[in-house]
UniProtKB/TrEMBL annotation:
Protein name: Olfactory receptor
Membrane topology qualifier: Multi-pass membrane protein
Compartment annotation: Cell membrane; Membrane
Lineage: Eukaryota, Metazoa, Chordata, Craniata, Vertebrata
One of the protein's GO biological processes: cellular response to lipid
Organism encoding this protein: Camelus dromedarius
Length: 323
């Protein structure tokens, strides 16, 4: 137990949940999750390393991509390990400080990713609508200020959440419904008033991911308007193609979250593993898929990776890669 005067709670630990109803096959389920984790680490570290080492990639689009890779890697490092720990060792127990710390970092990297996707939408808008002024608008100092603003905003809204949790009393149950600690999930276990926590949590979601999603939609309305004003069909396709990777990242990040929210509020009662799977898709799929999407769709990154993989000898001919 925690001392009453410090945390005011009865339960000293929380119990995480694997995938309900599939406990007997957790070991087998861990195989694809382990593969996903390795792909996430290799993919995002590769992108960050390439952008850091290659001066030709020190342009706004790739600098924002490096930020996205950092947020994806951070989100994975605070979700995958506890899941694998449950699957392999059936180790479900986390103390309150560890759980609240994990919650803080998961939601922090989640908000960072949302804000970075918004910054990337602004980057695509400037590139398409003001191509001649692109480099003068998005200078390195502007990108640095955008990155700092994202970081400050995220910390400002996320720091109060674990602090406010310390005032709650947990005495009904200590079993969480996911394989990692999330703010709404922890609030459900409290037997004291959560009105302040719920209000702050709702404000955080609406003022970060909710606002970011609306601004991303608005950005693409402006982008589509600009694309439709291009005279040539080929020019329109070329401009639209520059947005495919970013659109894929937006869809991968926001779709599971929106679907999960709709199901929780308006959908029929579904088995617990459906909700858990959709939550896993929101937190685990984007970090795996984003590097793949950007490598497949971005010629510069693909070519740099191929140069690392294929070492040409002094007498070998040049190889042309068709995109």
């Amino acid at each position: 137990m925690f001392p009453t005067n410090s945390t005011n709670s009865i339960f000293s630990t929380f119990l995480l949940t694997g995938i309900p109803g599939l406990e007997a096959v957790h070991v087998w389920i861990s195989i694809p999750f382990c593969a996903m984790f390795l792909m996430t680490v290799v993919g995002n570290v590769t992108i960050m390393t390439l952008i850091w080492k290659e001066h030709a990639l020190h342009v706004p689009m790739y600098l924002f991509l490096a930020m996205l890779a950092v947020s994806d890697l951070g989100l994975s490092l605070f979700t995958f390990p506890t899941m694998l720990r449950i699957f392999w060792l059936d180790a479900r127990e986390l103390t309150f400080p560890v759980c609240s710390t994990q919650m803080f970092f998961i939601h922090t990297f989640q908000d960072l990713e949302s804000a970075i996707l918004l910054a990337m939408a602004f980057d695509r808008y400037v590139a398409i609508s003001r191509p001649l002024h692109y480099s003068s608008i998005l200078t390195n100092s502007v990108i640095a200020r955008i990155g700092l603003a994202i970081f400050v905003r995220t910390l400002t809204v996320q720091v109060p959440l674990p602090i406010l949790l310390r005032r709650l009393c947990f005495c009904h149950s200590n079993v969480l419904s996911h394989s990692y600690c999330l703010h709404p999930d922890i609030l459900k276990l409290s037997c004291s008033s959560t009105k302040i926590n719920s209000t702050v949590g709702l404000f955080v979601v609406l003022s970060t991911m909710g606002l970011d999603f609306l601004l991303i939609l608005f950005s693409y309305v402006l982008i589509l308007k600009t694309i439709l004003s291009i005279a040539s069909h080929g020019g329109r396709l070329k401009a639209l193609n520059t947005c495919i990777s970013h659109l894929s990242a937006v869809i991968l990040f926001f779709t599971p979250m929106i679907c999960l929210s709709i199901l929780h509020r308006f959908g029929p009662k579904l088995p617990a593993h459906v909700y858990v799977t959709m939550a896993n898709m929101h937190f685990l799929i984007p970090p795996v898929m984003n590097p793949i999407v950007y490598v497949v769709k971005t010629k510069q990154i693909r070519d740099k990776i191929l140069k690392l993989v294929i070492k040409k000898g002094p007498g070998e001919s040049q190889v042309t890669f068709i995109t």
